[in-house]
Write a structure and sequence with these properties.
Length: 282
């Protein structure tokens, strides 16, 4: 077992916290994400830097954390197309270091990062070695997330370097996103089996294989989310289970929260069932 996983299991950090990405409340704000996480009983929050100005302000996020009593458990670096203007004038590596500084200031050690776009020059060309270096420098786990080829009328476009699939790259820490796996038309179960202990963070969501990144509720797509969850828990995964869902179709705060509370219950039921199985076997 990876030393990070062993430390989590033996230390003070709770196992398998069910957390909420603030992006799950979009188009509402980071403030709404903390409010929902506290009201619905989530164990923590993943802050998507770039969802609004508050998300990029460490002091503001710290106040939200303390006011609502919900810990920040992970940071999503501003590496999406729509977040490239966050911290304008800051270089790509400096943005990752700034994300790490934010994580440490908020008492967490996970930063989720997408592989770079192929047009991002030296940053993209040196990404694999650079991620290892910045992880060592900061002491933060930079968990590289699986992405997908962009599907266009002209065919697939490989937008990411060195690749959208981190399986064969020497990253130490990985994030599995089930919706991205669906969009890539691969099986999440195959990914987690191939990754083993490199899986350090989980975006629990789903998809049906559309060209769009759907971010459905876990269990609503084709990614066998329940089986993925059972597999990783049975094989020693102690990291967070972060719900990252698209709730825009709900149309209201109440509707979004109904979707999230159902997904939270779905997840906790399966975590409890996995623990019961483990207890019977021990």
């Amino acid at each position: 077992m990876d030393s990070t996983l062993a430390d989590d299991a033996e230390g003070d950090r709770p196992r398998n916290r069910v957390t909420l990405s603030t992006s799950s409340m979009f188009p509402e704000s980071t403030v709404s994400g903390f409010e929902a996480a506290a009201r619905l009983g989530f164990d923590g929050v993943e802050v998507m830097i770039g969802i609004d100005e508050v998300a990029a302000d460490v002091a503001a996020v710290e106040k939200l954390r303390d006011y609502h009593g919900v810990p920040v458990t992970s940071i999503h670096a501003p590496t999406l197309v729509v977040t490239q203007l966050v911290w304008r004038g800051t270089g790509h590596w400096d943005k990752l270091r700034r994300s790490a500084d934010m994580a440490l200031a908020l008492d967490c050690d996970v930063v989720v990062v997408h592989p770079p776009f192929r047009w991002q020059g030296d940053y993209a060309m040196g990404f694999v070695a650079g991620i290892a270096e910045v992880s060592r420098e900061t002491g933060v786990r930079f968990c590289v997330e699986n992405m997908y080829p962009w599907r266009t009328p002209a065919g697939e476009y490989q937008a990411y370097l060195p690749t959208w699939d981190p399986t064969d790259e020497p990253y130490e820490h990985l994030t599995l996103d089930l919706s991205h796996a669906a969009t890539a038309q691969v099986r999440s179960l195959d990914l987690v089996r191939a990754w083993g202990d490199r899986l350090q963070h989980l975006h629990l969501t789903d998809g049906l294989g559309s060209f769009r990144d759907e971010h459905l509720a876990p269990g609503a797509g084709n990614q066998q989310a329940a089986e993925v969850l059972a597999h990783v828990l049975a094989h020693g995964y102690t990291g967070d289970l972060c719900l990252e869902m698209n709730t825009r179709s709900a149309g209201s705060r109440a509707g979004r929260e109904r979707l999230l509370v159902d997904a939270l219950a779905w997840t906790r039921d399966r975590v409890a069932a996995s623990r019961e199985v483990a207890t019977r076997r021990s």
